Amino acid sequence: MELMADPTAPLPTPPAAEPATAGPLKAEPTATEPPPAGAVPPATPELTSQPAALTALLAAHDILRQPLGEIMPRLSELLAPLVPHRAAAELSTHCAHSPFKRTGDVDVPFTAAELTPLLAAVDAGRPWQGRAAAVGGAERDVIAVRSDATPRGSVLVLVREDGARAVGPAELALVQALWDLVTSHFDRFASEAMPGALARSRAAADTRARVTAELTTAHAAALSGLLGVLRSRALDDSAARATATDLAVSALIELRAESQRDRSVAEEPAFEAFARLADDLRPMLRHSPVRLELGPPDGPDATRTLPADLAHGARAIVRALLLVVLEQEAVSRVHVGWTLTEHELRATVRDDGPGLLDACPVGAGSVTDRLEVLGGRLELDAVPGWGTTLAATLPLSTPDAPVAAMDPLSGLGGREIEVLTHLALGHRNRQIAQELHISESTVKFHVANILNKLGVGSRGEAAALFHRAA
Fold first, then answer.
1. What's the whole-model pTM score?
2. What is the DSSP code string of 169-181?
């Protein structure tokens, strides 16, 4: 993507105090009074009673208290008086459930592929404004804000009216601060991998991956067939055939590139995932006499990628197991390693302690919950005098039974939930298609999947199940 403006200046200093107001979110001027001679600056920033800071805190509280699906619309709504914009979109690489979200003007048809170059080009902490090519299918005035509050970053893009006035550094600083906060908030849900959210994330990620694979296969087959016809010697217009062939080849390449871009957001290379785990574990033993040994991923599929939500869950499980191991006496060495096969990730925590650990403290709380959601299992091998080995084995495919047991609707994808909501209201296929802007055949496809996943035989039974769950 071509970026056609210079980055903005560094972030401004905190604004000066003014009388308190209850108006909309706004950024105050950045000028401050010089400190008195000989004054020693504080070592760390301090909270003040400045109304601009208070307004920003209230806005942040309002955004974070929203349901996850409403955070982006609310952020856009609160920023609108400060930075007028037509539409907003985000690309958050830590979210396997729905890394791409958008809100605002439907005439700006964002895609995740259009935001990917901005995520790579914009510097964290330095919001960029200018004209960007191919955003919403056209060259547009945008503001792009990147946050590195997560390891692989996230980007917020605001699409503005053409020719809109430039936004000042104080406003940009406030947008940056709010986006950093929102990104950290989202990342906490992902990194903690709470069982309920993890179950929904795994189900949604599985549905998303399956639909992507199906669409890729269908489009590739269609384009390959087109190429076969166009390359046929039975066609006599060689110039038209050559042009059409080039177009079809370009479309096929773009289709494959789109699949790779999507996988890069929803998945995480195993070596990168383990490196993040190592960064989490080292501080736990930094001042401990216990030596931590880290074995990088091995096994026949060590170089593969992992679903991002599974990687989050594996890290959380290993951290919890390590804490259990460190509670023993006479432990001087702990080894942590991952082994990957075609179907499983096996995470081991091995110590040289007394070998008297039993399964009770190991299977308590979040470890059992996370393993149940992920369809995994925990094995304990304790040998008195030789130490203990804990092994958590996680399947690399999505388990169905634990999800359905927790919530019969949690195994449905986002679009299927929308269709089921309309079914529960008694809507027919044509009305659902009109409301969701999809074809009737697509509605029938979703209805069939819904009945199959819920294990019911009719639309009425599915609607009744929805009302009970809601």
1. 0.43
2. HHHHHHHHHHHHH
